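step=predict obj=Carboxylesterase type B domain-containing protein n=1135
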Amino acid sequence: MRIQRNGLIKGRISITNGTNKEGIVFQGIPYASPPLNELRFKKPILPKNWTGILETTNFKKTCMWNSKLTNRNHDPSTMSEDCLYLNVYTSKYCINQGGCPTILYLHGGWFILGSPNSLGEETLIENYANDNRKIVFVSINFRLGSLGYLSLNQRLKLSMNTNIALFDVLGGLEWIKREIHVFGGNKDNVALMGHSAGSTAGIYIYTSQRSLGLIHKAIFISGPIVHPYLENANENYSRRLSIISGCSNCSTNWDDKNDVEKVLNCLRAIEVTKLLNYQRAVDEYGFRIFGPSSDIGEESFMIEPWNKLIKKKAKIPILVGGTKYEIVEGLKAINKFPNGETTIILDKVKIFCESYLSLYQLKNKSEGIRLCIEEYSNDVNKTIDIGDDFLFYKANYNLCNEAIDNDSDVYLYKFTYNKLNDSIKGFQFSNTTPFHSNDLVYLLGEKKNIFSNNDYIMQKKFSKIIVNFLYRGNPSSRGIKFEKYTKERNNYFVVDLNKDNSFIGMKNNYHNEGITFWTKTLKEKLGNFNEFTNDTEWIKNSPKYFEITTGRMIKMFVYPDSYYTCTNKHSELKRIETMNDSPNKIIYGFIRGIKSESNSKSGEAYAYLGIPYGSTRELRFKEPKSVPKWNGIRNATGNGTNCLTKSAILTRPINFEMYSEECLSLSIYTTKRCLQTSSCPVIVFIYNDGLNFKNATAVRERFTLGNFAKEGHNIVFVILNFRSGIFGNLNLNKNLPNLSMNTNVQLFDITLGLQWINDEIINFGGNKDNLSLMGYFTGSRITNMLRYSKRVEGLISKLILFVDSVDGLDMIDNSETISRNIAITTGCASGNTSWDSINEMESVLECMRNINEFELLSIQVNLEINGVNMNTPTIDYGESSFFQYNKNETFYRKVYIPILVEGTFFQDELTDENLDDLFVCQFFILYDIRDSEALLLLPHNSNGTQHDGKIFNLLDIPKKQCIEKLKETDYASIHQLNNFNYKPTVDYYQGFTNKVEGIYVVEKLNDNTERFDIILEELFSRFLLNFINYGTLNINEGAATNINVKINNLMIISDSYINESKFDSIVKNISLQVYENILESKDSLFLSPIEHIHNNTNILIFINNTIGKSNISSDNMRFSSLLTIISFIHFFIFT
């Protein structure tokens, strides 16, 4: 045969076994010139003419691919960069008579692998290319992976094209228009048909105006349309490829055409096998080719944005369908046990939800994730469908409806035939059969094995649907009643057989539940939203998403040494991950951390220690300044100097060589997963043992890594150093706004640290939009006060308050009195000093700034011994103040974010004598003695004094009896600590019974831990992780809800949780009943109006009331726990 443009070709006759069908086969016809050298990364050009007869009787080599994301055998000897060939299957009838309908088929393979060579020649002839069916079937090779979808900057007019693979297919369609008549095909009746990634590519081609007049029908099988609005898809991947290849470095300007052209020339010069080895490495780091992108511009493939193109699609018939189950990603989120029971893994469901929703511009992403988890975590069958619903069924639904809007005839089907048995090579039957691509054995002969009679019947009838559609644009014929798709019915044809071997036929409501959630429910709950046009959010989630879906461990991206050979330092922030000693680049310069493996349970973690975030040089008593940039690589491999601290309470010796006024540093602990994704939640920890002293290095790395920065938990944990005591809270006169000092210097320090973290945490794997500020002991008081300043608005998204969560706004403000006492003691002021005189105040300040810092510390300690303690930060106001408004305005301007409050309520050993002298949080203190029904409430007024000197007993138990019960108990308890049985586990502060639970989160625990300690540690970390991730404690795998006093719902957390997976209905009923009774009781002290809760702030209360050894009944324990939580809720209403 002579191809009109190029020359003679020779094919062969093929006769099928058994059915004796005859077809004519031409394999390896060039439709474009080899895309080599300067043609790499360019759209194809026409093939050159040849002389003589070109042998086209066997397949040519497939297009190059190399990926570890598949188990398929990778054999470079079967591949070539010279691969732009197609294959034609026709018949004598078509060649002699002409005018036969034509199919161009696009194979699948994740856009990175595959070829048409896997199709079954006999099946293609039996189904299409014979004298009865009279179809011309064409399959095509097109470039894959980086060779087919490289995109360095599609906004520049470069010597390359984006969407090269689509241009290849377009070249094939243009070849068909020119040449298919030679093979008996009708150039005016061409159907584009694709499966999986080939279907997705086909949908982009069908949507682009470039295909107008080239295709007249379309068949899309199992094609996921995930990100059609992404205009920069593949840029991140492509640039990483260029970095690993040594073709770009940290000075490459991706917006500079000359820079990018240099990268292109370098990539073209690399031998193709080596280039694909680099591509494989990028895959192993958890980054993958997106496939087609919505590139824009005259030289692009799509030309216009997707939202415009879907309204301009060709008005041609389309046939859309797929299998009952597709890739069933949801199976990865299900644990199946040998006894047949299954459980749903919420963490994996969450990753799926985060990944899918990262494509949408949601106003409230966390709520969207919560809704998604709720939708797909209550039923195993729903969980299985999560990926198929989003990736496939929703895509089919949208595709059908968009085509109807363009007045096209649309037909939708679902292949549910599951009697596959031995028909497919390597097939194993499961509950999710038929699976993605199982239908191809009947349509295309892919992986065909041994057919039964039923299999042959299915092949004949199923392929008849395709043939009917090719001839008439309608799949129907005698015995096949295939109705058009309508929006109202969402109707589809079931490709499956009745007992009489007839088709089951039409049904309504195609995957209705899942489609409704993704297309309607989310918008009803969250409001309308648009898709992102860039891939930033998706990239953050892709490594952990691909690790789950492929079952392969994702390696951390390692930047080669060549990356750091920069010739030009740019000032903009560059996101660089780290591995071992590879430095990070932050806005201030390069920084190198250390790899840490604190213990076996933590796994690999990475620490960046002592990073300066602010400078206090010559700024004593003033707000800090940002640190200057540095040259070279800064080592962040050891803790920075501690801020000056000393207290009379602190008995352990201090090495003052480790302390300095220039101390504003932070330490970051992260994981390789976080570094890959830059999407991990962040905890910023405010540690404070007292208002005069603290030491961030007291937090043991074991617990930082064990509870937060470890694989599986993946929390980026940040510890801040900030000034405290006299250096952090000096306040000589807050009403003098023009003094050369700031009140609340401590809070200014922390706020600058939060700003630094928001700017830089992405470089250490953190998501600044999910940043929890966690305070411990007096650090929780400081943390709580921060939310009353608009200076932190937008810097934090949640609060976690441990132990001492008193609201500082209602504390007695005596910071001025204390500060003035210090000034007088130093000799810088006297009893005659005029504290309202700016000049005199400046003289006092100058004097105090000239005193040696350690001398100031000694004065602070001496005053403390005499009962003068530095207080909390003060509510200052004025332009240069921290809070800026008066007390009342400050209260109503506070930042409304979710809050988790946790505390131990045994503050000291309780006796009758010391009962009235106990320090109280603010309004009341609880003593839950865990025995019988005894519960004491000691309410206090806001000034900290006992309310009327009375003891209020909710359960009508006399005071004496309650105290006696307290004295009699001697069992080991985390909260019942009368005999201090917890001492063996704590290194110091043995008298601080009100902060014992801290040893299970951040404190120093020694080696005398028991199994119970380990259980509690895991319990604490789990609750914290759930709150950080979901904004809820998430008890019983998502069963718990946030506390909301408006609907009187409660959550009980007790020791029974350690031993039981669920609470019984009786306890739940009791909780609601008792809570209502307390609210309605006339004798109740809790009369604070509910409307004091402003703006629907989300509050969670977690009372640590867990017992170590006790024989107390669980019902009493739960009841007692309930009252504890109820009371603390009301405490928070007051505050």
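step=describe
The domain at 2-310 is CATH 3.40.50.1820 (Rossmann fold).
step=end
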